[in-house]
Amino acid sequence: MIRHLAAASLLLSTACLAIGPAAAADPGITDTEILIGDVEPLTGPPALLGVAASIGHKIAIAEANAAGGINGRKIKYVLEDDGYVTARTIQGVKKVIDVDKVFAMIGISGSGQSIAVMPVIEKSGIPTVIDVAPVKFLWEPPRKNVFVVGQSYEEGIIHLVNFLADKNPGKKWGLITQDDDYGITVRDGFDSVVKAKKLNVVYSGNYKKGQQDFSSDMLQLKDSGAEVFLAGGIIGENIAMMKELEKLGIKPVTGIFWPGRIEPVLKLMGPAGDGIYAVDYVEPFAGAAGKAFLEKAMPLVSEAEFKGINRYTMTGYAAAKVLIAAIERCGKQPTWACTISELEKTRNVETGVMAPISFGPGVRFSNQKLQIMQADTATLSFKPVN
Amino acid sequence: MQYLIQLLISGLAIGAMYGLIAMGFAVIYKSTGLVNFAQGEMTMITAYIAWTISTTVSGNVFVVAIGAILAAVVLGLVIERLVMRPMLGEPVFATVMVTIGLAVILRSAINFIWDAYPHGLDIGMGRGIVHLGGIGVRTGQIAVIATLLLLLAAIWAFFRYSKVGVAMRAVAADDRTALLMGISATKVHALAWAASSAIAGIGGVFFALSYDLSPAMFQLGLKAFPATILGGLDAVLGSGLGGLLIGITENLAGGYLGSGMKEVAGFAMIIVVLMVRPFGIFGERDIERV
After folding, report:
1. Does the interface ipTM go beyond 0.90?
2. Which of A21, A220, A271, B141 is surrounded by the fewest CB atoms within 10 Å?
3. Best interface-test mutation with A: which of B138, B212, B218 has the largest number of A CBs within 10 A?
């Protein structure tokens, strides 16, 4: 009996040695597939960004799989819902890393959620590309395995306010922001331009997250005589503000930020939204690049998913393209170390939906080029402003 | 002066929406002794159904209104029969937890059945702006205030003069005695859930008409609940008036004390009122609290 057990052990050891390289490889990779994990808000109001971003990931993955996958391996996408609840984000990320054993991570929910889950991702060492909520904390200081595609909220606001200030010299300004980390970032960006350009701010409001009625806030704005207005809401808030201004019979020059730059918003704002300015680093769908992206996406996703496409689909698509390209450059036996090294070597990768993406040694943030757009209610689209 | 009037009108309009939903809370509490934490979600579902009717069946205001009310009634009855009736006789805490679970399910249902995008409810009216003495008011705002006042009068008459209304009051006062008198408590409960769903649903539809429809709409329930507490958890009419008070207070605070005070003011008022009248302005003293 003992002799049989010893023989079996020897056989097992030999077998393990024979498949040594595969057993020693990083998780999430077999001879036929590579797993990429993601945790997004797929339910609740923020599903608007989470679902759209996941569609972007799916488009890039479907495109790569249609072209034969990554060096012959098909990509499998493992997606978890966090409902925009930080505890669930952490739980979800731990699940996809420890239970599903994915090879790389992508996306990762909102700003607060990705910040909270950073210690888990950093400790695991898994190659990660973040695309939904680019906030400075994620790349300052740079983390070895975490790369961020996008532009910082603060830079975005600075770009928008500078543009509006140059276009409307000497005008009175109004600002309203949300009472959370998003609102603080918007306000910080705004304040830095106010200081530099000595803008005359006559109204500065701060609303509680979840507020839906802005009648008194907009009445105060009107009363202040503000001529240029930075609406620091996200989606529903900006719609409510613009409709309130319409009711009050005023139409200040208005700027909104990219989280709210989605086309359905224009339909809901109606004439009140015509001509509002927005800042973004992804291409507008009304432009040639946007149209080309939609054409590419149509055969790769379902009809329902196609309807769910918005700007976050573009950010998701770009990030997935960068990650897939890096894994691909690692050849037949990709590892985490190689993927991270190749991500670092990313130079001017064209995705068609934003300016070329680059990282570098110690550079984990792609720092995308910004552009100003203006709403056109007639076509329910945002068009680039030259 | 115009500034003040504008604040009051806007406050009354949003307050009327809170009031309608608050009445939904109170109808259920009064008849079943239960706080329905899924009230905001039920309101949201009704508004989404109204939007679906307007985009798929007809955008006619009467078709949408009747369809939405019927759908709300069915929703209330289904929830009562399938979810709440099996909980009869169970501890109040367990029943309240069931309504919390129901809230989460209904909230998630929005994304499964519809989507996360904001939508506008267009029924051809309610969005126009009329000018009253130089003050811009949306027709939907006038309509919601009028609807609340009409419903307050109708509900008062219902509880005061109708047999069913008296039966509901009897069950609320003492369900065992009411049972001995031949009143079916389960029927009264079912009616309460249906009525609550319909009344709150009307508030939700008006909200969707004035603002927009989104998965964040369930938060209306969180705003309306303080109105119920203020008016009295067992006072249906008082809850409606509580909504108006909360709406006006919020707007006056937001307009005169600053944006940040808007959300705080309503709750500050509740604390003060409850310190003086723990059972709410119009509530009865012997409330059994959850």
Report:
1. no
2. A21
3. B212
